[in-house]
Amino acid sequence: MNLIDTLQNADALVLVDVQNDFCPGGALPVTEGDRVVPALNRWIDAASGTRALVVASRDWHPVEHCSFQSQGGPWPQHCLQDTPGAAFHQDLALPPDAVLVSKGTAFDRDAYSAFDGTGLAVFLKKKGIKRLWVGGLAQDVCVLRTVVDACHLGFETHVLLSATRPVFPEKSALALAEMTAAGAILEQDDR
To answer: If 16 and its partner were Cys, which of 31, 52, 126, 136 is the partner (CB 3.0–4.6 Å)?
Structure first.
């Protein structure tokens, strides 16, 4: 049995920040960031067959966001609300009923995790979701924080390794080790 065949209707597929600005040509490109899309599309297709929930988080920053270098933050300007850079990658096959979660929307604080200030944990628990399958961008930043939070919140959390890439490749091993230490299960889901 393939790993993807274990997806159930009480699961959620969490797609972290698969946005144009994090893909090649974007304002904050992750090397091979667009390569996560085919893997995630396979999981989206499987989710539709099992009626598993699909959640897509996105950076949704206001102008002059505190994370931008121009405001003293560590990152170049990226994922400005309602701009092409903040849009999901055009090839990502999000279903019409996907749950969209916007983060990093406050001027004065950043949010790397899809759970940070979004109410996502309460929503998932109300839906009876106990197991999460997580992929997206970037492995060593927003995927890392989302996975660690998911584990701490009591979700059984699986990381789809073929469906995530780090912004800093040299930090990938540390990020994966931190996820594992938090209780996440790293899945080699290549087909």
So the answer is: 136
Active site amino acids: 17, 103, 142
Give strand pairing partners of 158: 133, 185
Who wins on pLDDT, 4 or 181? 181
Assigned architecture for domain 3-187: 3-Layer(aba) Sandwich (3.40)
Q: What is the pTM for the complete model shown?
A: 0.96
What SS3 state is found at 57?
strand
Query: Domains of the chain: which residue ranges?
Result: 3-187
pLDDT in tens, 42-87: 999 999 889 899 999 999 999 999 999 999 999 999 999 999 999 9
CB 28 within 8 A of CB 167: yes
| Phi/psi of residue 20, nearest 5 degrees | -55, -40
